[in-house]
Design a protein that fits this description.
single chain, mainly alpha, 4 helices, 2 strands, elongated
């Protein structure tokens, strides 16, 4: 990873071009992995990523690139962000009965119990 090379050779010097290249490599790997997830969305997810994200085996190589090119805290952040966006999209698009305002039970729903 470019970041490791940078850190070990020049611990007191900041090379913004190297950091920029490492960040760009991370973003490209991230985009490739999530594009694979979208492309293979019809397949059964069998692999487990961070924060409970599941993905199909076909995306394993792009996942490996993503994990190798990004800091682990970034990987977790991007996975959380992806899951959150998918959940919101599913609630907005799907026929999920939980979307919209919550309906509260009406008074006529509860019948008084017969007193003896």
């Amino acid at each position: 990873m470019a970041l490791d090379t940078y850190a070990s050779s020049n611990p007191n010097e900041v090379h913004e071009d190297v950091l920029l290249k490492a960040r760009d490599a991370c973003y490209k790997a991230r985009d490739a992995f999530y594009a694979c997830l979208e492309k293979e969305s019809g397949k059964k997810p069998t692999e487990i990523a961070t924060v409970g994200l599941l993905y199909p085996k076909e995306c394993s190589s792009s996942r490996t690139q993503f994990v190798n090119n990004c800091r682990s805290s970034w990987v977790k952040h991007f996975d959380r962000e992806y899951c959150r966006n998918k959940r919101v999209q599913r609630l907005l698009d799907g026929g999920d009965e939980r979307k919209g305002p919550m309906s509260l039970p009406q008074p006529y729903t509860f019948k008084p119990s017969p007193s003896t």
